[in-house]
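Continued from yesterday's entry.
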Amino acid sequence: MDLGKKLNIEWEKVLLVWNWSYKNMWDELILLWTIKLLQEQDKKIYISAYNPGWLKKFLGQFVDVENIEFLREIPKWFRSFWKFIRDKNSRTLKKYKEVDSIIIGGGEILTEEVPSTYWYWLVSIFPCLKQKPNIYLMWWIQVPKKDRNKKLFDYLMKRVKYVYARDLESVYELKKYGFEGAEFFMDTSYFAFDWKRLEQDKLKRWRYIVINVNKNGEDFLDDIIKDIKYYLEEWYKVLYVPVAKWRNDEYSDMNYYRRIKKECKMDDRFEILDREDDFEKFATKISKAEIVISTRLHLFLISNFLWTRTKVYPYQKKILKMQEVVRNLE
Protein backbone atom coordinates (compact mmCIF):
# COMPACT_ATOMS: atom_id res chain seq x y z
CA MET A 1 0.00 0.00 0.00
CA ASP A 2 1.67 3.20 -1.19
CA LEU A 3 1.10 5.96 1.39
CA GLY A 4 3.57 8.44 -0.10
CA LYS A 5 1.47 9.55 -3.05
CA LYS A 6 0.84 13.19 -3.90
CA LEU A 7 -2.34 14.80 -5.12
CA ASN A 8 -1.97 15.69 -8.78
CA ILE A 9 -4.24 18.73 -9.03
CA GLU A 10 -3.91 20.83 -12.18
CA TRP A 11 -4.20 24.63 -12.30
CA GLU A 12 -3.72 26.99 -9.40
CA LYS A 13 -7.01 28.07 -7.81
CA VAL A 14 -8.52 25.09 -5.98
CA LEU A 15 -11.92 24.98 -4.29
CA LEU A 16 -12.49 22.39 -1.54
CA VAL A 17 -16.14 21.36 -1.20
CA TRP A 18 -17.73 19.20 1.50
CA ASN A 19 -19.63 19.66 4.76
CA TRP A 20 -16.77 21.69 6.18
CA SER A 21 -17.29 23.39 9.58
CA TYR A 22 -20.25 21.30 10.65
CA LYS A 23 -18.02 20.52 13.65
CA ASN A 24 -17.39 16.96 12.54
CA MET A 25 -13.95 15.96 13.78
CA TRP A 26 -12.90 13.56 11.04
CA ASP A 27 -13.95 15.81 8.19
CA GLU A 28 -11.82 18.56 9.70
CA LEU A 29 -8.74 16.32 9.88
CA ILE A 30 -9.26 15.21 6.28
CA LEU A 31 -9.48 18.85 5.26
CA LEU A 32 -6.39 19.76 7.29
CA TRP A 33 -3.99 17.42 5.49
CA THR A 34 -5.54 18.14 2.10
CA ILE A 35 -4.75 21.81 2.75
CA LYS A 36 -1.17 20.93 3.66
CA LEU A 37 -0.73 18.95 0.45
CA LEU A 38 -2.06 21.84 -1.63
CA GLN A 39 0.04 24.42 0.22
CA GLU A 40 3.14 22.38 -0.58
CA GLN A 41 2.18 22.82 -4.24
CA ASP A 42 1.66 26.60 -3.78
CA LYS A 43 -2.01 26.38 -4.71
CA LYS A 44 -4.43 29.21 -3.99
CA ILE A 45 -7.03 27.54 -1.74
CA TYR A 46 -10.73 28.31 -1.45
CA ILE A 47 -12.91 26.44 1.07
CA SER A 48 -16.70 26.22 0.94
CA ALA A 49 -17.87 26.20 4.58
CA TYR A 50 -21.08 26.27 6.61
CA ASN A 51 -19.38 28.42 9.29
CA PRO A 52 -16.30 30.06 7.72
CA GLY A 53 -15.28 31.96 10.87
CA TRP A 54 -15.29 28.91 13.13
CA LEU A 55 -13.45 26.75 10.58
CA LYS A 56 -10.72 29.36 10.10
CA LYS A 57 -10.17 29.51 13.88
CA PHE A 58 -10.02 25.71 14.22
CA LEU A 59 -7.59 25.20 11.32
CA GLY A 60 -5.43 28.05 12.65
CA GLN A 61 -4.17 25.61 15.33
CA PHE A 62 -2.37 23.65 12.63
CA VAL A 63 -1.71 25.66 9.44
CA ASP A 64 -1.32 29.21 8.14
CA VAL A 65 -4.84 30.23 7.13
CA GLU A 66 -4.23 33.86 6.18
CA ASN A 67 -4.03 33.20 2.44
CA ILE A 68 -7.02 30.81 2.36
CA GLU A 69 -10.38 32.10 1.12
CA PHE A 70 -13.19 30.83 3.39
CA LEU A 71 -16.46 31.07 1.44
CA ARG A 72 -20.02 30.58 2.60
CA GLU A 73 -21.31 27.30 1.14
CA ILE A 74 -23.86 27.40 -1.68
CA PRO A 75 -27.25 26.97 0.03
CA LYS A 76 -29.08 23.67 -0.38
CA TRP A 77 -31.66 24.09 2.38
CA PHE A 78 -33.27 26.93 4.31
CA ARG A 79 -30.66 26.48 7.04
CA SER A 80 -27.86 27.76 4.86
CA PHE A 81 -29.95 29.96 2.53
CA TRP A 82 -30.47 32.75 5.07
CA LYS A 83 -26.82 32.69 6.14
CA PHE A 84 -25.82 32.97 2.49
CA ILE A 85 -28.13 35.96 1.92
CA ARG A 86 -26.73 37.76 4.97
CA ASP A 87 -23.15 37.05 3.92
CA LYS A 88 -23.08 39.34 0.85
CA ASN A 89 -23.76 36.54 -1.62
CA SER A 90 -22.79 38.61 -4.66
CA ARG A 91 -19.19 38.80 -3.43
CA THR A 92 -19.23 35.10 -2.53
CA LEU A 93 -20.46 34.06 -5.97
CA LYS A 94 -17.72 36.14 -7.58
CA LYS A 95 -15.12 34.22 -5.57
CA TYR A 96 -16.62 30.88 -6.63
CA LYS A 97 -16.22 31.91 -10.25
CA GLU A 98 -12.47 32.52 -9.75
CA VAL A 99 -11.62 28.84 -9.23
CA ASP A 100 -10.26 26.60 -11.96
CA SER A 101 -10.13 23.27 -10.07
CA ILE A 102 -12.52 21.69 -7.56
CA ILE A 103 -12.02 18.88 -5.05
CA ILE A 104 -15.23 17.36 -3.69
CA GLY A 105 -14.13 15.28 -0.74
CA GLY A 106 -14.58 14.39 2.89
CA GLY A 107 -16.68 11.26 3.27
CA GLU A 108 -19.54 9.58 1.44
CA ILE A 109 -19.32 11.67 -1.72
CA LEU A 110 -21.71 9.64 -3.84
CA THR A 111 -23.61 6.85 -2.17
CA GLU A 112 -27.23 5.74 -2.06
CA GLU A 113 -26.81 5.10 1.67
CA VAL A 114 -27.11 8.88 2.03
CA PRO A 115 -30.17 10.29 0.22
CA SER A 116 -29.76 13.09 -2.34
CA THR A 117 -25.94 13.09 -2.50
CA TYR A 118 -25.98 12.75 -6.29
CA TRP A 119 -27.61 16.15 -6.75
CA TYR A 120 -26.30 17.72 -3.50
CA TRP A 121 -22.73 18.07 -4.77
CA LEU A 122 -23.83 19.33 -8.17
CA VAL A 123 -25.65 22.17 -6.42
CA SER A 124 -22.53 22.83 -4.32
CA ILE A 125 -20.38 23.55 -7.37
CA PHE A 126 -23.04 24.98 -9.69
CA PRO A 127 -21.63 28.57 -9.77
CA CYS A 128 -18.27 27.20 -10.97
CA LEU A 129 -19.46 25.01 -13.84
CA LYS A 130 -19.56 27.75 -16.49
CA GLN A 131 -15.75 28.03 -16.21
CA LYS A 132 -15.44 24.26 -16.91
CA PRO A 133 -13.04 23.58 -14.03
CA ASN A 134 -11.13 20.38 -13.39
CA ILE A 135 -13.23 18.33 -10.96
CA TYR A 136 -11.66 15.78 -8.61
CA LEU A 137 -13.49 13.41 -6.28
CA MET A 138 -11.99 12.09 -3.05
CA TRP A 139 -13.18 9.11 -0.92
CA TRP A 140 -16.33 6.96 -1.13
CA ILE A 141 -17.84 6.55 -4.58
CA GLN A 142 -20.80 4.27 -5.25
CA VAL A 143 -22.12 3.67 -8.76
CA PRO A 144 -25.89 4.15 -8.29
CA LYS A 145 -28.68 1.71 -9.07
CA LYS A 146 -31.65 4.11 -9.10
CA ASP A 147 -32.47 5.66 -12.49
CA ARG A 148 -32.58 9.27 -11.27
CA ASN A 149 -29.24 8.91 -9.51
CA LYS A 150 -27.71 7.27 -12.57
CA LYS A 151 -28.52 10.34 -14.68
CA LEU A 152 -27.00 12.70 -12.13
CA PHE A 153 -23.98 10.44 -11.70
CA ASP A 154 -23.39 10.26 -15.46
CA TYR A 155 -23.67 14.04 -15.75
CA LEU A 156 -21.10 14.58 -13.00
CA MET A 157 -18.64 11.85 -14.06
CA LYS A 158 -18.43 13.29 -17.58
CA ARG A 159 -16.92 16.38 -15.94
CA VAL A 160 -14.64 14.58 -13.45
CA LYS A 161 -10.95 14.53 -14.28
CA TYR A 162 -9.76 12.08 -11.62
CA VAL A 163 -10.88 10.18 -8.51
CA TYR A 164 -8.83 9.56 -5.36
CA ALA A 165 -10.66 6.82 -3.43
CA ARG A 166 -9.73 5.71 0.07
CA ASP A 167 -10.96 2.15 -0.51
CA LEU A 168 -10.22 -0.30 -3.31
CA GLU A 169 -13.87 -1.25 -3.80
CA SER A 170 -14.66 2.27 -5.07
CA VAL A 171 -11.78 1.98 -7.56
CA TYR A 172 -13.05 -1.37 -8.83
CA GLU A 173 -16.65 -0.11 -9.14
CA LEU A 174 -15.56 2.91 -11.16
CA LYS A 175 -13.46 0.85 -13.54
CA LYS A 176 -16.34 -1.55 -14.01
CA TYR A 177 -18.51 1.48 -14.79
CA GLY A 178 -15.95 2.49 -17.44
CA PHE A 179 -14.09 5.27 -15.62
CA GLU A 180 -10.35 4.51 -15.66
CA GLY A 181 -9.07 7.64 -13.89
CA ALA A 182 -9.28 6.34 -10.32
CA GLU A 183 -6.74 5.14 -7.76
CA PHE A 184 -6.45 4.31 -4.07
CA PHE A 185 -5.31 7.25 -1.94
CA MET A 186 -4.95 6.90 1.82
CA ASP A 187 -7.47 8.88 3.89
CA THR A 188 -5.61 12.16 4.41
CA SER A 189 -6.57 12.29 8.10
CA TYR A 190 -3.90 9.61 8.58
CA PHE A 191 -1.26 12.31 8.02
CA ALA A 192 -3.01 15.24 9.70
CA PHE A 193 -1.43 14.72 13.12
CA ASP A 194 1.89 13.27 14.27
CA TRP A 195 0.35 10.20 15.88
CA LYS A 196 3.77 8.58 16.40
CA ARG A 197 4.73 11.25 18.93
CA LEU A 198 2.41 9.49 21.35
CA GLU A 199 3.71 6.00 20.54
CA GLN A 200 5.97 5.83 23.60
CA ASP A 201 2.91 5.79 25.87
CA LYS A 202 0.95 3.19 23.96
CA LEU A 203 1.42 0.44 26.58
CA LYS A 204 0.42 2.63 29.50
CA ARG A 205 -3.36 2.55 29.95
CA TRP A 206 -5.38 4.59 32.41
CA ARG A 207 -8.63 3.52 34.04
CA TYR A 208 -11.10 5.16 31.72
CA ILE A 209 -12.90 4.27 28.52
CA VAL A 210 -13.88 6.56 25.65
CA ILE A 211 -17.38 6.46 24.14
CA ASN A 212 -19.28 8.00 21.25
CA VAL A 213 -22.74 7.29 19.84
CA ASN A 214 -24.41 9.09 16.95
CA LYS A 215 -27.89 9.12 15.45
CA ASN A 216 -27.07 6.56 12.75
CA GLY A 217 -25.79 4.10 15.35
CA GLU A 218 -28.76 4.41 17.68
CA ASP A 219 -29.81 0.79 17.06
CA PHE A 220 -26.69 -0.30 18.96
CA LEU A 221 -27.37 1.91 22.00
CA ASP A 222 -28.57 -0.92 24.29
CA ASP A 223 -25.46 -2.99 23.51
CA ILE A 224 -23.18 -0.01 24.13
CA ILE A 225 -24.84 0.70 27.46
CA LYS A 226 -24.16 -2.94 28.46
CA ASP A 227 -20.50 -2.42 27.55
CA ILE A 228 -20.34 0.76 29.63
CA LYS A 229 -21.98 -0.84 32.66
CA TYR A 230 -19.39 -3.62 32.56
CA TYR A 231 -16.54 -1.11 32.81
CA LEU A 232 -18.33 0.96 35.45
CA GLU A 233 -18.57 -2.18 37.60
CA GLU A 234 -14.79 -2.48 37.20
CA TRP A 235 -14.43 1.14 38.45
CA TYR A 236 -13.52 2.76 35.16
CA LYS A 237 -14.46 6.34 34.31
CA VAL A 238 -16.31 7.15 31.10
CA LEU A 239 -15.13 9.91 28.78
CA TYR A 240 -17.70 10.81 26.15
CA VAL A 241 -16.61 12.44 22.88
CA PRO A 242 -19.17 14.65 21.07
CA VAL A 243 -17.68 14.12 17.60
CA ALA A 244 -20.44 16.10 15.85
CA LYS A 245 -22.12 19.06 17.55
CA TRP A 246 -25.35 19.74 15.75
CA ARG A 247 -27.72 22.39 17.04
CA ASN A 248 -30.57 20.00 16.31
CA ASP A 249 -30.78 17.91 19.48
CA GLU A 250 -31.95 14.82 17.59
CA TYR A 251 -28.67 14.63 15.64
CA SER A 252 -26.34 16.00 18.31
CA ASP A 253 -23.98 13.47 19.89
CA MET A 254 -24.66 15.17 23.24
CA ASN A 255 -28.19 13.76 23.11
CA TYR A 256 -26.75 10.25 23.57
CA TYR A 257 -24.40 11.39 26.33
CA ARG A 258 -27.40 12.47 28.38
CA ARG A 259 -29.33 9.29 27.61
CA ILE A 260 -26.42 7.03 28.55
CA LYS A 261 -25.74 8.90 31.81
CA LYS A 262 -29.40 8.65 32.79
CA GLU A 263 -29.48 4.91 32.08
CA CYS A 264 -26.23 4.16 33.93
CA LYS A 265 -27.00 6.40 36.95
CA MET A 266 -23.33 7.21 37.54
CA ASP A 267 -23.00 10.99 37.12
CA ASP A 268 -19.77 11.20 39.10
CA ARG A 269 -17.88 8.93 36.65
CA PHE A 270 -18.94 10.57 33.37
CA GLU A 271 -16.99 13.38 31.72
CA ILE A 272 -16.96 15.15 28.35
CA LEU A 273 -13.77 14.74 26.32
CA ASP A 274 -13.73 17.65 23.87
CA ARG A 275 -11.38 17.97 20.91
CA GLU A 276 -12.16 21.42 19.62
CA ASP A 277 -9.73 23.79 21.39
CA ASP A 278 -6.71 21.56 22.08
CA PHE A 279 -6.48 18.60 19.71
CA GLU A 280 -3.14 17.35 21.04
CA LYS A 281 -4.56 17.04 24.57
CA PHE A 282 -7.54 15.16 23.11
CA ALA A 283 -5.29 12.74 21.17
CA THR A 284 -3.20 12.09 24.29
CA LYS A 285 -6.34 11.11 26.20
CA ILE A 286 -7.37 8.69 23.44
CA SER A 287 -3.89 7.14 23.40
CA LYS A 288 -4.12 6.26 27.11
CA ALA A 289 -7.68 4.91 27.17
CA GLU A 290 -8.35 1.27 28.03
CA ILE A 291 -10.73 0.96 25.07
CA VAL A 292 -12.67 3.17 22.66
CA ILE A 293 -16.28 2.13 21.95
CA SER A 294 -17.92 3.97 19.10
CA THR A 295 -20.45 3.90 16.29
CA ARG A 296 -18.46 6.45 14.31
CA LEU A 297 -15.79 5.75 11.75
CA HIS A 298 -14.07 8.97 12.88
CA LEU A 299 -13.27 7.86 16.41
CA PHE A 300 -12.52 4.29 15.32
CA LEU A 301 -9.76 5.49 12.99
CA ILE A 302 -8.15 7.90 15.44
CA SER A 303 -8.02 5.11 18.03
CA ASN A 304 -6.34 2.79 15.55
CA PHE A 305 -3.80 5.44 14.57
CA LEU A 306 -2.97 5.76 18.29
CA TRP A 307 -2.79 1.96 18.91
CA THR A 308 -5.74 2.05 21.31
CA ARG A 309 -8.04 -0.97 21.46
CA THR A 310 -11.37 -0.32 19.76
CA LYS A 311 -14.83 -1.77 19.59
CA VAL A 312 -16.85 -0.35 16.73
CA TYR A 313 -20.53 -0.86 15.96
CA PRO A 314 -20.73 -0.49 12.16
CA TYR A 315 -23.94 1.23 11.10
CA GLN A 316 -22.73 1.88 7.53
CA LYS A 317 -20.72 0.04 4.91
CA LYS A 318 -18.01 2.73 5.02
CA ILE A 319 -16.93 1.50 8.47
CA LEU A 320 -16.48 -2.06 7.22
CA LYS A 321 -14.53 -0.75 4.21
CA MET A 322 -12.18 1.28 6.38
CA GLN A 323 -11.62 -1.61 8.77
CA GLU A 324 -10.18 -3.47 5.79
CA VAL A 325 -7.90 -0.53 4.95
CA VAL A 326 -6.65 -0.41 8.56
CA ARG A 327 -5.94 -4.16 8.50
CA ASN A 328 -3.83 -3.62 5.38
CA LEU A 329 -1.94 -0.81 7.11
CA GLU A 330 -1.16 -3.07 10.05
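--- second protein ---
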Amino acid sequence: MMTIRKMVSLSNFGFSIFLNDAEKCISLKGHNIENFANMIQSIVPDCKDISIDSFGERALPAKTMIHVLK
Protein backbone atom coordinates (compact mmCIF):
# COMPACT_ATOMS: atom_id res chain seq x y z
CA MET A 1 0.00 0.00 0.00
CA MET A 2 2.85 2.38 0.74
CA THR A 3 4.18 1.96 -2.80
CA ILE A 4 0.80 2.82 -4.31
CA ARG A 5 0.47 5.89 -2.08
CA LYS A 6 3.95 7.03 -3.15
CA MET A 7 3.08 6.53 -6.83
CA VAL A 8 -0.09 8.59 -6.35
CA SER A 9 1.82 11.40 -4.66
CA LEU A 10 4.50 11.51 -7.40
CA SER A 11 2.18 11.32 -10.40
CA ASN A 12 0.45 14.26 -12.05
CA PHE A 13 -2.10 12.49 -14.23
CA GLY A 14 -1.90 8.83 -13.25
CA PHE A 15 0.33 5.79 -13.34
CA SER A 16 0.54 2.23 -14.64
CA ILE A 17 1.55 -0.99 -12.93
CA PHE A 18 2.98 -3.85 -14.97
CA LEU A 19 2.28 -7.41 -13.80
CA ASN A 20 4.69 -9.75 -15.56
CA ASP A 21 2.67 -12.97 -15.41
CA ALA A 22 -1.01 -12.63 -14.63
CA GLU A 23 -1.55 -16.40 -14.88
CA LYS A 24 0.76 -16.93 -11.91
CA CYS A 25 -1.20 -14.32 -9.97
CA ILE A 26 -4.32 -16.42 -10.44
CA SER A 27 -2.69 -19.55 -9.04
CA LEU A 28 -0.89 -17.91 -6.10
CA LYS A 29 -2.89 -17.77 -2.88
CA GLY A 30 -3.75 -14.19 -2.00
CA HIS A 31 -2.96 -12.80 -5.47
CA ASN A 32 -6.02 -11.50 -7.24
CA ILE A 33 -5.85 -8.74 -9.86
CA GLU A 34 -9.42 -7.59 -9.25
CA ASN A 35 -8.77 -7.33 -5.51
CA PHE A 36 -5.58 -5.39 -6.24
CA ALA A 37 -7.52 -2.94 -8.44
CA ASN A 38 -10.13 -2.58 -5.67
CA MET A 39 -7.36 -1.84 -3.18
CA ILE A 40 -6.05 0.90 -5.49
CA GLN A 41 -9.60 2.30 -5.71
CA SER A 42 -9.75 2.45 -1.90
CA ILE A 43 -6.42 4.29 -1.76
CA VAL A 44 -7.34 6.71 -4.57
CA PRO A 45 -11.14 7.01 -4.19
CA ASP A 46 -11.40 10.11 -6.40
CA CYS A 47 -9.52 8.64 -9.38
CA LYS A 48 -11.22 9.04 -12.76
CA ASP A 49 -10.55 5.53 -14.07
CA ILE A 50 -8.82 2.24 -13.31
CA SER A 51 -8.44 -0.11 -16.26
CA ILE A 52 -6.97 -3.59 -16.45
CA ASP A 53 -5.47 -4.53 -19.83
CA SER A 54 -4.27 -8.08 -20.42
CA PHE A 55 -2.13 -9.03 -23.39
CA GLY A 56 0.10 -11.83 -24.62
CA GLU A 57 -0.35 -14.61 -27.15
CA ARG A 58 0.37 -18.34 -27.44
CA ALA A 59 3.89 -18.95 -26.10
CA LEU A 60 4.06 -15.56 -24.38
CA PRO A 61 2.97 -15.63 -20.77
CA ALA A 62 -0.04 -13.53 -19.84
CA LYS A 63 0.90 -9.98 -18.99
CA THR A 64 -1.30 -7.32 -17.47
CA MET A 65 -1.14 -3.54 -17.12
CA ILE A 66 -3.22 -1.70 -14.56
CA HIS A 67 -3.71 1.95 -15.53
CA VAL A 68 -4.87 4.52 -12.98
CA LEU A 69 -6.04 7.93 -14.21
CA LYS A 70 -6.17 10.54 -11.46
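Strands lie at 14-19, 49-55, 63-69. Residues 33-43 form the longest helix (11 residues). Will compare against the first tomorrow.
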